[in-house]
Specification:
The protein is of the alpha+beta class. Helix content is 40%, strand content 20%. A hairpin with a 7-residue loop joins strand 2 and strand 3.
Length: 117
Amino acid sequence: MKESTYKRTIVYNDLFIDQGSRRKGDERNREFWQAMDGLHSRYPGCNILVERYAKEHFSTGIGEDVRIICSSPGVQKMADHIYDIHYYVVPISLSVLGDGEKEDAIAHVLRNDVMNP
């Protein structure tokens, strides 16, 4: 049987992001990540890609969401259901910017979403 892939990737420039805020988000979404790990374990022949991308967020100006791409339509439907019931869009904070402007940094990160150039 061909080995499948289960990959998590970040598709935005996360150099400006405070990693502590991302870790809090990962903790908040622990059930989501556990459910996705379980889904891959149950369907080992399916390729699953989870892309973390930046989007506007009302509380901090920027947040992290995910999109899931599966090679099987049936598994995609299950993954979408997992997202709907377990995923929480993570408000993320910028790291210390020095002389930079917060709005400029947020705009930069949002532009670096490779799916929305």
